[in-house]
Amino acid sequence: MAEHGGDPELLTMEQIAERAHVSVGAIYKRFQGKSSLLPLVLERVHAQQLEKLRGFLAEPRWREAGLGERVQALLQVFAESQAARQRLIRALLVGHWQSPDPGPQEARAAEVMGAMHEWLSERADEIRHPDPRLALSLGLFTTLQTIQTAVMLGRVPPALGLERFVDEQARMFRAYLGLAPGG
User: Fold this and answer.
1) pTM, full prediction
2) Using CA atoms, how far apart are residues 66 and 180, in angstroms rounded to an integer?
3) How far apart are CA 79 and CA 127, in angstroms?
4) Region class of 157: left (phi > 0), else alpha (psi between -120 and 50), else beta
5) CB atoms within 10 A of CB 36
6) What is the pLDDT of residues 93-139, one digit of tens each?
7) For the chain, percent helix, then strand, then coil, each to nearest 5?
8) Alpha helices (H) along 85-131
């Protein structure tokens, strides 16, 4: 499937059928075309991401970790996930915007965001922003969107590289929350 270069418009049903080890006819019996297939793929990817995320968040090492450490780790794992699946996610985002009913996909995305927010909220007492809940919600959303956009569009500043870019995003998020530097 690399022949399409990550562009969903160049991805053919033949390539999808080959990758799924089924005939093209079998796909067309169930789907009208790529536009009806991509939302289902997106749903599956979201489900997998949520499962992985929940496993990551449940690791025993996080019980004693402070909010700053959690922010750093969460942003790093998110960036690595986005980079590893860059082409797929880009194609799925296009599929999402073309979907006649984006509701289920948006609900799953909200579930992923909610799990991250809840995990970080376990350390909300460390937040020094005047409105801790707002700061956590807005900071998380803004930081994740910035990382996703930079990775998806290939806009990570080359002078920084992904790891340092994520470190700086984490530094901004921690500062917005009012955490001590390195905290």
Assistant:
1) 0.79
2) 11
3) 23
4) beta
5) 14
6) 666 566 666 677 778 788 889 999 999 999 999 999 999 999 999 99
7) 75, 0, 25
8) 86-98, 103-121
Question: How many angstroms separate the CA atoms of 87 and 123, rounded?
Answer: 34
CA distance 107 to 103: 6
- CA 29 to CA 27: how far, in whole Å? 5
The C-alpha atoms of residue 158 and residue 144 are separated, in whole angstroms, by 19
- 160: its two tokens: 């920084």
Distances, alpha carbon 70 to alpha carbons 67, 73, 115, 132, in Å: 5, 5, 13, 16
- Residue 161: left if φ>0, alpha if ψ -120 to 50, beta else—which one? left
**Cα–Cα distance, 25 to 47 (Å, whole number):** 27
Q: How many CB atoms lie within 10 A of CB 95?
A: 21
